[in-house]
Amino acid sequence: MFQEVKLTDHIYYVGVNDRRTALFENLWPLERGVAYNSYIIDDEKVTLIDTVEIGYIDKFLSKIRAAIGDKPIDYLIINHMEPDHAGSVKILSELYPDMKLVGNKKTRPMVEGFFGITDKFKEVGEGDSLVLGHHQLQFFMVPMVHWPETMVTYNPEHKILFSADAFGSFGTLDGGIFDDELDIEYFIDEMRRYYSNIVGKYGNPVQKALSKLSGLEIKTIAATHGPILRENIERIVTLYDKWSKYEAEENGVVIAYASMYGHTEEMAEVIARELALNGVKQIRIYDVSKTHASYIISDIFKYKGVILGSPTYSNELHPNMESLVNKLENMGVKNHLLGTFGSFTWSGAAVKRLDTFAEKMGWEVVGESVEEKHALKDEKYNACLNLARGMAGKLS
Ligand SMILES: Cc1cc2nc3c(=O)[nH]c(=O)nc-3n(C[C@H](O)[C@H](O)[C@H](O)COP(=O)(O)O)c2cc1C
């Protein structure tokens, strides 16, 4: 039994919290859990908007029944087919056999492919409206935010945007469900980590979606993860605009390094100290073997400067650094300042690979890369200082 949560007199929040799953998509740590948000509109046509991960079906159904009792559901709006939201579609469509599944032309083959359902699909297109009685829903396609079929649903009467994964966040809703009921600062980092790692590759589609939706008057954003936004809409949309243009929020520096025996780490510390002596206050050092890449990538979206270091490992980058640069290349992150360093014992290859990374990314290189053979000695120590000064100079 749960308290009912209402966005309006007839629109209910029926989402659930997941504090059990360790890795989202079996990849991203969920230290603060995650919420799967779903909404139901109790009108002449009862309409559910998105579902939840299948493991939470019991709790989900009890919330649905608390909101609408034994009434049938007429429509299920499928904004996004990823299984954390569409996971309960099949079972719901068995429980509510007359329920129409509403999606677009790219949703249709996914519904057929995943669930074998062909006869209950109602296709909607860009700008189409669906009248539920007193409520209307309008649909806007936002392809590749972050799947091809993704769309958002707008309710003009209450100016609510059901935004799928856009504006979502990791983190369970611990009592507070609306942003004015909770400490939004607690969620901003997890919102950035969610955005950068899950949606970050799709900056252009997000920009297109933002400009498409900019014409709507929005008073509430109801995403499929994270708090329902009423108070911080402008702030979060501004952050999304920045993130999707790969514009950093702050002039800090992320130093990410790999190190087996401490030589590369020593160079990282020297660079960091010199950055601080040159006025850089926001310095975040990460050992890529200790900190999950999702946190490092999130901070790379936040800070303008990036300095990467690695020892040579079997004629390549240390594997954990290779994994990080590979992710960044795949995402096509733009608009950063870069410095690189590393160490080797017989034939260096790490810094060469980091230089290739620099070329691929097109980031502005702030100084010569530093590669030391064996322990750190005067010449390369000074080169580390110069690299730090180069970065600090560009940031000031
Ligand atoms: C498993 C392993 C593989 C290595 N492969 C190479 C290599 O291919 N070329 C090279 O010059 N040094 C290689 N090294 C030596 C390290 O790159 C070198 O000692 C470096 O300074 C280690 O940095 P660290 O102290 O930060 O771990 C290797 C070391 C280890 C342990």
UniProtKB/TrEMBL annotation:
<dbReference type="GO" id="GO:0010181">
    <property type="term" value="F:FMN binding"/>
</dbReference>
<dbReference type="InterPro" id="IPR016440">
    <property type="entry name" value="Rubredoxin-O_OxRdtase"/>
</dbReference>
<dbReference type="InterPro" id="IPR045761">
    <property type="entry name" value="ODP_dom"/>
</dbReference>
<dbReference type="InterPro" id="IPR001279">
    <property type="entry name" value="Metallo-B-lactamas"/>
</dbReference>
<dbReference type="GO" id="GO:0016491">
    <property type="term" value="F:oxidoreductase activity"/>
</dbReference>
<comment type="similarity">
    <text>In the N-terminal section; belongs to the zinc metallo-hydrolase group 3 family.</text>
</comment>
<dbReference type="GO" id="GO:0046872">
    <property type="term" value="F:metal ion binding"/>
</dbReference>
<feature type="domain" description="Flavodoxin-like">
    <location>
        <begin position="253"/>
        <end position="392"/>
    </location>
</feature>
<dbReference type="InterPro" id="IPR029039">
    <property type="entry name" value="Flavoprotein-like_sf"/>
</dbReference>
<dbReference type="GO" id="GO:0009055">
    <property type="term" value="F:electron transfer activity"/>
</dbReference>
<dbReference type="Pfam" id="PF19583">
    <property type="entry name" value="ODP"/>
</dbReference>
<protein>
    <submittedName>
        <fullName>Flavorubredoxin</fullName>
    </submittedName>
</protein>
<dbReference type="InterPro" id="IPR008254">
    <property type="entry name" value="Flavodoxin/NO_synth"/>
</dbReference>
<dbReference type="Pfam" id="PF00258">
    <property type="entry name" value="Flavodoxin_1"/>
</dbReference>
<dbReference type="InterPro" id="IPR036866">
    <property type="entry name" value="RibonucZ/Hydroxyglut_hydro"/>
</dbReference>
